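lol forgot to send this yesterday, sorry. struct tokens for the thing we talked abt
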């Protein structure tokens, strides 16, 4: 397998690993995300359990909400499509996300229900366990006729997580309608399979693949890619996912880094050694950074490093929205240290 040295030319400027992301050219249009906003309730005491009494940290959350806030924090125009209630926790989350710089003008307001809750506990093996209280939550009842499809006119991209396909019939219909509308209006479609055992049904994989075939950009974990394609090696998974339709495919691998593939080349990005406090939101922030990098016209090597740094910084703090999502300056600062190796290899030669 050959390793290529990548040079990233923007005009006459040659970008290196340490280049400043703020200098990249930006194509116009808002990056929208669609989904359900939640409240995460996180034990304050280390080792705290859901079944135990004790103080909790109350933070705005939800995969699509984290993505939207990460896009804004990374300096791009961000908008959210979804539905919130009139309850106090809905108001808290709405104001928090808007305070992060996300356009919330197209969010539906309803007295149909309350925002969903997610209690989180951290297990001794480093994994997380979620206990959801979101059945018929207001966000899960976001209907097709409540979506302002005109908002997608001129948008750069629409992103949504795969869990929406299983969460409720209403969100499934709305998500698929929005995906088709975005494609018709010339926006890119970004999709994160986000496979979660507690939300999966027997038909979920088939529905997920149907969206992957529509998508321009996907960012599953390597394990998710293996499940979707039935392949095992990184190269085989990437080739199989590209064959389904997406032109840009990223595979995240937790502490082992990530790969980003497009135009027949793959960037292999090693992991960055940092203390892990809370992994919540790392994948969503990585996916947001990927779309932002594409909008800014970054080369493949730069894109992989930018995404890897953004996702890595999230795990060093607890509570994603308003707490752990990094700013563009923080990502640039980490990139400038050249924290990991990035290699470029031909997709056809990757095992």
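and heres what i got for the seq, position by position
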């Amino acid at each position: 397998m050959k390793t290529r040295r990548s040079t990233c030319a923007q005009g006459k400027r040659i970008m290196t690993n340490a280049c400043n992301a703020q200098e990249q050219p930006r194509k116009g249009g808002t990056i929208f995300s669609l989904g359900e906003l939640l409240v995460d309730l996180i034990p304050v005491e280390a080792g705290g359990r859901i079944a135990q009494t004790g103080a909790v940290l109350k933070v705005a959350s939800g995969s699509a909400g984290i993505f939207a806030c990460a896009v804004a924090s990374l300096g791009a125009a961000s908008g959210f499509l979804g539905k919130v209630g009139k309850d106090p926790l809905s108001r808290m989350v709405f104001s928090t996300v808007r305070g992060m710089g996300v356009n919330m003008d197209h969010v539906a307001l309803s007295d149909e229900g309350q925002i969903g809750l997610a209690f989180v506990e951290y297990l001794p093996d480093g994994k997380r366990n979620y206990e959801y209280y979101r059945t018929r939550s207001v966000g899960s009842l976001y209907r097709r006729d409540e979506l302002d499809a005109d908002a997608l006119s001129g948008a750069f991209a629409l992103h949504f997580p795969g869990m929406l396909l299983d969460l409720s019939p209403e969100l499934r219909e709305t998500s698929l309608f929005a995906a088709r509308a975005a494609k018709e209006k010339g926006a890119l479609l970004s999709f994160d399979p986000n496979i979660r055992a507690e939300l999966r049904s027997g038909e979920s994989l088939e529905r997920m693949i149907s969206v992957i075939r529509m998508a321009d950009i996907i960012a599953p974990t390597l394990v998710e890619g293996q499940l979707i394609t039935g392949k095992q090696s990184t190269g085989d998974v990437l080739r199989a996912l590209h064959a389904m339709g997406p032109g840009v495919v990223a595979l995240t691998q937790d502490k082992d880094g990530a790969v980003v593939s497009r135009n027949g080349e793959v960037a292999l990005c090693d992991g960055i050694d940092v203390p892990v406090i809370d992994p919540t939101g790392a994948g969503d922030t990585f996916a947001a950074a990927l779309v932002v990098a594409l909008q800014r016209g970054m080369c493949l090597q730069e894109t992989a490093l930018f995404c890897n740094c953004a996702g890595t910084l999230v795990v060093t703090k607890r509570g994603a929205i308003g707490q752990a999502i990094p700013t563009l300056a923080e990502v640039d600062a980490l990139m400038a240290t050249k924290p990991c190796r990035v290699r470029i290899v031909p997709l056809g030669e990757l095992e």
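Confidence is low (pLDDT under 50) at residues 9-26. anyway ping me if u want another try
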